[in-house]
Design a protein that fits this description.
302 residues, two-stranded parallel ribbon, alpha/beta, 8-stranded mixed β-sheet
Length: 302
């Protein structure tokens, strides 16, 4: 299968592309730097809509993973605009390009996030739950998912993979936490009661491949492990795996002082999200339990 992938150099894309190639797929990475164009990398410009026609020819599927990081730097007005526009503009551009191809690709898998649900305390949330209101990230996710409209209108099966907190030792939240936790300076954030819907990077790749091949899946799919945990449980489990104490909590006021508005949506609030549609479609999680996932990712297997 010929598959276009945007965001191929990111945390997920850098693991997904070689996995797809190993499965025998012909993967074409979409890149924004013409100097990076190669036999397996085609140029596209999301702002202008320009995309290499040869890349689109014979395209059977597309996976859209682009977007600037939500956790790098304080949420200034400029940063929030970049977070929103980098996702919505790129998705709109790709969906329109795919809708113009004859024949159209069979599927577009487009990234989203559990931020779609907003801050909901300990309410259990699945794909049938309503979106949040008043949260910056829920608004971003709504616009992000709506940006695939052209592909849906063209009859392309669209899957919105709503990612939870992706755990990887090579980047993302876990990598940023390792240094303080290894030094014995880690602990819960705020009350520690906020839920964290996490997933190991291995299962992110596995779930995307599953969505790619399961024709019954369309619309939102929560890409999270079956058992979300509180921030307190996460901190204690990480400390246990690293054999380090977790006696230095970060008070809410300190998180807000350090991270501003981002602290309230990413650190002090959370979502208790479950992967109902993945489970019903018989996806087999490689790492459904937090402790075994952390031991695997950190090479701490017993």
């Amino acid at each position: 299968m010929k598959i276009l992938v945007s965001g191929s150099s990111g945390l997920v894309g850098s693991r997904l592309v070689p996995a797809l190639a190993q499965l025998g797929h012909n993967v074409v990475r979409l890149v924004r730097d013409k100097a990076q164009v190669s036999a397996d990398a085609a140029y596209w410009d999301p702002q202008s809509g320009e995309i290499d026609a040869a890349a689109l020819a014979g395209c059977e599927a597309a996976i859209n993973l682009g977007g600037v990081s939500i956790a790098d730097g304080r949420w200034t007005a400029e940063r929030k605009r970049a977070i929103h526009d980098s996702r919505v503009d790129a998705t709109t551009s790709l969906a329109k390009a795919l809708s113009s191809v004859e024949p159209t690709p069979s599927v577009l898998i487009s990234a989203s996030a559990v931020g779609y649900y907003g801050t909901r305390g300990d309410e259990v949330l699945d794909e049938s739950s309503d979106t949040g209101s008043g949260d910056f990230l829920s608004g971003v996710c709504r616009d992000w998912e709506a940006a695939t409209a052209a592909a849906s209108a063209a009859g392309i099966r669209v899957v919105h993979t709503r990612f939870g907190v992706i755990l990887s030792a090579r980047g993302g939240a876990l990598a940023k936490m390792l240094t303080p936790f290894k030094l014995g300076l880690g602990g819960p954030i705020g009350s520690g009661r906020q839920y964290m819907s996490w997933i190991a990077i291995d299962d992110v790749v596995g779930a995307i491949v599953h969505c790619l091949t399961d024709d019954e899946l369309s619309g939102p799919v929560n890409v999270v492990a079956p058992e979300p945990v509180t921030n307190y449980t996460y901190a204690k489990t990480l400390g246990h795996v690293l054999s380090r104490p977790t006696v230095f909590p970060m008070p809410a006021f300190a998180a807000r002082l350090a991270f501003g508005e981002m602290a309230d949506e990413l650190l002090l609030a959370g979502q208790r999200v479950v992967p109902t549609r993945l489970l019903k479609s018989d996806y087999q999680f490689r790492y459904p339990q937090l402790q075994e996932a952390l031991r695997h990712l950190l090479n701490k297997e017993k």
